[in-house]
Structures are given as C-alpha cells and as structure tokens.
C-alpha cells in the first residue's frame, strides 16, 4: 500500500510530460440501426464513439456529408452531443427525398477515424396517394 502514492505521482508526471500517452483512436461503441419512419415524424440515428481526445462525429448519407444545425441553425437535422443524428421531422416529398438513404457516422481524432455500420432510413407512407 505504501507504494501507491508514489505510483500515482509517477503516473501524473508521465501524463503531464507526455500528454499523448493515454490518447486512443476513435471506436464506435453504439452503431445506428435501420429505421422506417413516417413523413413528418421525428427520428434518431444513434452513434456513440469513444476515444481520446474525444472524437468529432460527422454523418454521411449515400456518401455525401450531412449538414446539421452545426452548419445551418435552421436545419431540421441536429447533431446531438452524444454524436447521434436527430431529425426534428422527416422531410419527404414526391420529387425531393432529402432524408431517405443509407447513413454512416464517422468519428475522428488526430489518431484516426472509425466508421459505423450502414443504417438505412426509409420513409413509409400512411395513406395511399400521399
């Protein structure tokens, strides 16, 4: 037991002199799941990543980066602090289907990146002819 404070001090010293010692590349700990949602309804695609430093999370749909409220405050897509993508309401029209597609989340820090599994978001119609 007597050696514990010494070990603790040594650990603190090594952390301060080599701050990157404890750093770790991102890894996805919660992957998004396929969703089937109704037009106009809210929806959430989950993504949770770990790493040190805390990874930045971005979303891609069909290979294109998804714009969220971080870029456009009026966006109906919000990037939650956890890394999940929250849709205030699913937008879906005859010609434009901006929310339907295959999504992945990508977590990055200076040590690398991790990509989640694919998740499909599909919009179901409640009434015929909608």
UniProtKB/TrEMBL annotation:
InterPro entries: Ig-like_dom (IPR007110), Ig-like_dom_sf (IPR036179), Ig-like_fold (IPR013783), Ig_I-set (IPR013098), Ig_sub (IPR003599), Ig_sub2 (IPR003598). PROSITE patterns: IG_LIKE. The keyword Zinc does not apply. Keywords: Disulfide bond, Repeat. Residues 26-122 form the Ig-like domain. GO terms for biological process: cell-cell adhesion. The keyword Disulfide bond applies. This is Ig-like domain-containing protein.
């Amino acid at each position: 037991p007597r050696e514990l404070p010494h070990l603790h001090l040594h650990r603190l010293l090594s952390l301060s002199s080599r701050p990157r010692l404890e750093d770790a590349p991102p890894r996805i700990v919660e992957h998004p799941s396929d969703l089937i949602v109704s037009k106009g309804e809210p929806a959430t695609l989950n993504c949770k990543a770990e790493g040190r430093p805390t990874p930045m999370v971005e979303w891609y749909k069909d290979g294109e980066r998804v714009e969220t409220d971080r870029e456009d405050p009026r966006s109906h897509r919000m990037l939650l602090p956890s890394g999940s993508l929250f849709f205030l309401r699913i937008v879906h029209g005859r010609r434009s289907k901006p929310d339907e597609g295959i999504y992945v989340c990508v977590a990055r820090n200076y040590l690398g990146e991790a990509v989640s599994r694919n998740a499909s978001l599909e919009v179901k119609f409640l009434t015929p002819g909608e």
